[in-house]
Specification:
About 40% of the residues lie in helices and about 25% in strands. By secondary structure, it is an alpha/beta fold. The chain is globular and about 65 Å long.
């Protein structure tokens, strides 16, 4: 058998391996939290959007919730201001909030354009639209960090309407409080809250690491599957630190609120979403309910 024929047979094998997953998740909702390097690298950006478009075309109902932290920092610096962080949270004064809103809306519409270029319909919304994300002021260990919002309530009606009309909703993490003041929201928190409220089948976090490690300095200790209890044990035993800690806590809360499965994926790997969802072994860390 020549090499060309083997290539085609390998391709067919991949499609056959994906078939049970396509059947299982048909018409199911998947929330993709899109951030990290995959948002900055143009090639990776394209791959992520291709993945989401493919998920849509094979029968999933994908929703994108995106960040834009690095882009915000860039524009804050260009405006002559110094980005400030407390406990990993951006200190957001009135001027920074204005920049953040402009930058995030620009990112949002760029993602819409990329999806539309692939012949799939998308609509970009922010948490202000239809009262989607209602927030209250968030503090970092008692420190006032400005216009940073903690999600108090999600009104998913606008999401259901868009899914019903066959659009991919692309959500920008900005919300309002009871006084209609605008707040920036951590994109992980927004994705988690949306997934929990709509009872998503899957929630996938695109990050800059390969998954959860027992020892962050040893790549061979990546854990491909974790139950909620195992995740809690890892946290309690001090294995999880830095930015992974709030991410893993979000995963646990999502599962406990009815999301069936949460994935932590390395967005730097092209087509990481497809590899995780449509292959038997997967490539990141999946967090699942206790047995």
């Amino acid at each position: 058998m020549n090499n060309d024929m083997q290539k085609y047979l390998d391709k067919a094998e991949v499609l056959i391996e994906a078939l049970p997953y396509i059947q299982k998740f048909n018409r199911k909702i998947i929330v993709v939290k899109y951030g990290g390097s995959a948002m900055i690298d143009e090639m990776l950006q394209k791959r992520v959007i291709e993945d989401v478009a493919l998920l849509k075309l094979v029968g999933f109902k994908p929703i994108i919730v995106h960040g834009g932290g690095k882009e915000i920092s860039k524009w804050v610096e260009r405006s002559g201001m110094e980005p400030k962080f407390v406990k990993g949270l951006r200190v957001t004064d009135k001027n920074t909030m204005e920049i953040a809103e402009m930058v995030l809306n620009r990112v949002n519409k760029n993602l819409v354009r990329m999806v539309e270029e692939l012949g799939v319909r998308a609509i970009g919304i922010c948490g202000k639209d239809g009262g989607l994300l209602k927030v209250e002021k968030k503090y970092a260990d008692g420190t006032d960090i400005g216009y940073v919002g903690q999600i108090r309530e999600v009104n998913p009606q606008i999401i259901y309407d868009l899914l019903e009309k066959d659009f991919i909703p692309i959500i920008c993490p900005i919300g309002m409080d009871d006084e209609y003041e605008t707040y920036n929201i951590n994109a992980d928190d927004a994705a988690d809250a949306v997934a929990r409220t709509i009872g998503a089948e899957k929630l996938a976090f695109l990050t800059d690491i390969e998954g959860v490690y027992k020892n962050p300095n040893d790549p061979t200790t990546r854990i491909s599957r974790l139950t909620v209890q195992e995740a809690k044990d890892l946290i309690a035993e001090g294995y999880i630190g830095g930015g992974m800690l709030p991410k893993l806590q979000n995963c646990i809360e999502a599962i406990e609120s009815g999301v069936k499965r949460v994935h932590i994926l390395d967005g730097r790997i092209p087509h990481c979403l497809l590899l995780e969802i449509f292959t038997d072994r997967g490539i990141g860390t999946a967090i699942v309910k206790d047995e």
